[in-house]
Each structure stands twice: as structure tokens, then as C-alpha cells.
Automatic annotation (TrEMBL):
Signal peptide: none annotated. Residues 164-191 have a biased composition (Acidic residues). InterPro entries: Las1. One of its GO terms (molecular function) is endonuclease activity. This is LAS1L protein. Residues 163-191 are annotated as: Disordered. PANTHER family: RIBOSOMAL BIOGENESIS PROTEIN LAS1L. GO terms for cellular component: Las1 complex; preribosome, large subunit precursor. The gene is Las1l_0. Pfam families: Las1. It comes from Chunga burmeisteri. One of its GO terms (biological process) is maturation of 5.8S rRNA. It comes from the Eukaryota.
């Protein structure tokens, strides 16, 4: 008798596509209450999944947490700069880390390869080695990185697309240019 091969199953921290979609929409919705609920769900995923948590999910959660704290009005400007700063530094370091093989490659070059704006890498450099930047620049960096994560990771998972229809038309040309750069992105970083 021939044995039927069962398809390989991947164990993930989320219950299914519906939960994934709900968290994705919650993170990007702009409503701090819904964002906090999505962050709580990501924390549950992290407790189940541990170090296997996709870097993009982890980075997105850290950046959204900064935005939720910012909108709460509970932190002072300096505290917000440090919070945004840590999340941005971790993003750049974690996303470029997998591309840093045995040879040290400049972060600016790695950022270009994965289509991260160079000024975000410069912001990371200032946060790490220089004088702390203004809060407005940290907020802008957070927004740009969250948009990058949405386009590069979230909207491509499970066939989802969170782009607004008006953005889709504007982004078609940019997306086509970015496809080549993103094709080289190490999938291990996202899975």
C-alpha cells in the first residue's frame, strides 16, 4: 500500500490567518487602543515563539509601541527620543545583520541593497554615536520604517496588501524598482 505523504506543516505562534490579519490591521490602524490590543497579541506570540519570532514582527511591534507611548502623553520628549531611538537602532541593526557575512559591509551599502532610506541609517548613526536628534526626526524615522515594514513584509505575507488604493497607483513604479532590491533580501530574516 502506498502511503500518502502529508504536506509539511509549519508551527507558528498565531492561530491562523484571521488572527494574523487582525493583528496586522490593528498595528497599522492608527487607533492607539486597537494598536495596544495588537501589541498584546504580539507579546503572546513572542512568549509562544521566543527567538523564532520574525524580526519584522518584532521590529514593527517595538516601533508601534513607541507611537502608542507617544500618543499617551505620559513620556517627556527626551524619554520619547530614547524610546524611538532604541527601536530604530534595533531595526537597522537587525535587518542588516543577516547581510553582514564574514566581511564587514558598510551599513549604508546594506541599506541600499534592501531599499532602506540612507537617512534612516544616518539617523541610527547619530542615535548610536552622536548627539541625540530632535523628536520630530525620530517620529519621521519611525513612520518611514513602519511604512517600509508594511510594504516589504506585512503586505506580502499571506497575499495581503494594506496599501491604500491611491497609494497603490503612486507606489507601482517604486515597487517595481524595489522588487529587484528586495529580491535579494534574506528570507530567513522574515520567516
Amino acid at each position: 500500500a502506498r502511503k500518502r505523504l502529508k504536506p509539511l506543516r509549519t508551527v507558528v505562534a498565531w492561530r491562523g490567518r484571521a488572527e494574523w490579519d487582525q493583528v496586522m490591521v490593528g498595528l497599522y490602524c492608527g487607533d492607539s487602543r486597537l494598536q495596544q490590543e495588537a501589541l498584546d497579541r504580539v507579546s503572546a506570540w513572542k512568549s509562544r515563539y521566543g527567538p523564532k519570532m520574525p524580526l519584522a514582527v518584532d521590529c514593527t511591534a517595538e516601533l508601534i509601541r513607541c507611537k502608542v507611548l507617544d500618543s499617551s502623553g505620559k513620556l517627556k520628549s527626551h524619554e520619547l527620543i530614547l524610546s524611538y531611538g532604541l527601536a530604530l537602532v534595533r531595526f537597522v541593526n537587525l535587518i542588516t545583520e543577516r547581510k553582514q557575512k564574514m566581511v564587514s559591509i558598510p551599513l549604508r551599502q546594506l541599506a541600499r541593497e534592501v531599499d532602506i532610506p540612507i537617512w534612516v541609517v544616518d539617523l541610527r548613526h547619530e542615535l548610536t554615536h552622536g548627539k541625540l536628534p530632535r523628536l520630530a526626526l525620530c517620529r519621521k524615522g519611525c513612520d518611514v520604517v513602519l511604512d517600509w515594514l508594511r510594504k516589504t513584509y506585512w503586505s506580502r505575507q499571506l497575499g495581503n496588501n494594506l496599501c491604500e488604493e491611491s497609494e497603490e497607483e503612486e507606489d507601482e513604479e517604486e515597487e517595481q524598482e524595489g522588487v529587484e532590491a528586495n529580491a535579494e533580501l534574506d528570507n530567513d530574516a522574515w520567516e
